[in-house]
Amino acid sequence: MKISFLGAAHEVTGSCYYLECAGKKFLVDCGMEQGQNIYENEPLPVPPKNLDFVLLTHAHIDHSGMLPKLYKNGYRGPVYATEATTHLSDIMLRDSAHIQEFEAEWRNRKGKRQGKSVYEPEYTLKDAMGILHNFVGCPYSKKIEPAPGIEVRFVDAGHLLGSASIEVWLTENDTVRKLVFSGDIGNSAQPLLKDPTYIDEADYVIMESTYGDRSHGERPDYKTSLAEVIQRTFDRGGNLVIPSFAVGRTQEMLYFIRQIKQEHLVEGHDDFEVYVDSPMANAATTIFAEHPYDCFDEEALSLYRQGINPLSFKGLKISITSDESKYINFNENPKVILSASGMCDAGRIKHHLKHNLWRPESTILFVGYQAAGTLGRALIEGASEVKLFGEPVSVQAEILQLPGISGHADVNGLLSWAKAFKNKPRRYFVTHGEDTVTDIFARRLREEMDVSATAPYSGTIFDLASGSFIKETAGRRIENTVSTVRSRKSGAAFEKLLAVGQRLLSVIRKNEGGANKDLDKFAREIQSLCDRYDREE
After folding, report:
1. At what angle do helices 488-510 and 435-449 cross, to 10 degrees?
2. Predicted local confidence at residue 506, as pLDDT
3. Which CATH topology does 2-215+407-471 take?
4. Residue 28 in contact with residue 179, Cβ under 8 Å?
5. Domain ranges of the chain
6. Mean pLDDT within 474-488
7. Virtual torsion, Cα 267, 271, 272, 273, nearest 10 deg
């Protein structure tokens, strides 16, 4: 009876956990790494064909994206997920396969001219279709038994349509242990979706920490804030481009824009058009409408019962084909463009950025998390020039981020979820967060709740019966430059420095709106430290 941590360990993406119990081997999530990878992930310790089943928390690619590769390498067992996750995965994994094939085709075309060997895609559409046929849809709150000695229940995590925390009961040689995998914990009071369901009992908790070091702050009035951005952008004759995750965030934006139009919050542009330029987003919106009673909150359900589609309105334009996508940028009227991907690292959004980033009258509005190493992260951090399709593009558009809008719970939401357990879990394992954030949040759990909390690295193995580590790894960093040898003590000191830096950023955010005199003094003190320790490369 043991668990191995493979992915999203001291990193935000690539969730994957391997478990053995009662003679069975299974995974919880099998996600793709996205953005910048810091640590090398341990490979699956057994051939995929030897796995008995997979449990999937939700359809986002950083949790599901390597399932087709699992199939490609021999896995033929079931994938248990909620019914809505099963339907969303159908479009998301097929889309991911198309991207893999397209990238391989592009690299091989380029590599052939350079005499390079053939590049194989991670997987193909055939592999995606293969694993999709093995999905088993499960209702919320009902126990299932994937194998003797293993029981499972999905509960609503409030993060995405169909998202779940997973309760797992393991029985082996009269020893029973209950595990809870948080999945991605949803933000409370977000549009469309219900709040996350709290769980009151567990022996071991494996939980995410995406925002484990920060608060979203006071909940803003998203509708009013978005209306103000649209008004300002349209008044100067520009386009509002919203890089938006096709599943989840796009539907939330449509929900707000429907309200904005209904209440006439944008003056002088009543009939403005909104383009959803993402085939996957359009398919996902249809799936949302098919599952209102699974996940919709009371406000959205009330509209649905009145015969009002909460995700549709006059002026909404759906773009499916490439020609329809190209037309958008030939239309000179100010408009809203919602396009994927949300981090700007693939998809049609890159074309819209190419046409709008250099225009001072346009606005690029980010409405979701931007992972380190992505184009989206570079833009919100102030890049003055970026490369798109091999060409430099000057950043002249207004770059904004809608504060507080997130499908993830902030640190307060995470703590509330963790504190909901009525018993005292034997240990919390903190995963799915940036390198130092996992340590910061694990420390908060220890200090505020007086519990055992660990942030494991990939390759860590834990014995669930005895409550002890079989193998505890330190993490192997991926070196992009010539590596240097650091003592263990020096490395630990540097990690501590990074953690303090994260806390400094948190303190800076908390001082927003303070007196100018105090903020100037704070800035001078930080500048003095920077001047003291700044070193030439």
Report:
1. 80
2. 54
3. Metallo-beta-lactamase; Chain A (3.60.15)
4. no
5. 2-215+407-471, 222-401, 488-533
6. 55
7. 160
